[in-house]
Amino acid sequence: MKYAILVYETETGFDNRTNDQQEAYWGAYRAYSQALAEAGVIAGGAPLHPPHAATTVQLHEGQRKVQDGPFADTKEQLGGFFLIDVPDLDSALDWAARCPAASSCGVEVRPLLPMNE
Q1: Residue 116 confidence (pLDDT)
Q2: Cβ-proximal residues to 112 (8 Å cutoff; 6+ apart), any chain
Q3: Is residue 65 included in any domain, yes or no?
Q4: Secondary structure (3-state) at 5
Q5: Residue 32 lies in a domain
Q6: Which family is it part of (predicted)?
């Protein structure tokens, strides 16, 4: 079954991508990605630009409303995702617990819905 591991980060987490902590930050994610690949469970994923780079679109009475920045103003924002293919939720939770963000923020696990073709 396929699951999305959604990685949430604080502003500090996003800053660690480019400041003097960047080698440790990216090194942890490289190791995690390599472990997923070696286990044969990775199906995709990508880091995202920081929340200020987001653009949110909503329709109100048929009119498009565009807002710079993320939809929600919260302490933690979506920083990236991994798509994995594992036998069950317990396996997905085991992989999510190994994600570097799990020790400092939130990591959400969601099953993917199959697309009707």
Answers
A1: 75
A2: 1, 2, 3, 4, 83
A3: yes
A4: strand
A5: yes
A6: Belongs to the YciI family.
The dihedral through the CA atoms of 66, 69, 74, 76 has a sign that is positive
Surface-to-core class of residue 82, CB atoms within 10 Å of its CB (0-12 exposed, 13-18 middle, 19+ buried): buried
Q: Into how many domains does the chain fold?
A: 1
Containing structural domain, residue 92: 2-111
Of residues 104, 100, 108, the one with CA closest to residue 33: 100
Lookup: tokens for 13: 């987490």
We report the CATH number of the domain holding residue 32 as 3.30.70.1060
Strand (E) positions, 21-101? Answer: 42-47, 55-60, 63-68, 77-85
CB 6 within 8 A of CB 81: yes
Looking at residue 34, the DSSP 8-state letter turns out to be: H
Residue 116 located in a structural domain = no
pLDDT tens-digit readout, 14-73: 888 889 989 999 999 999 999 999 999 999 999 999 888 888 888 989 999 998 876 666
Within a domain: 117: no
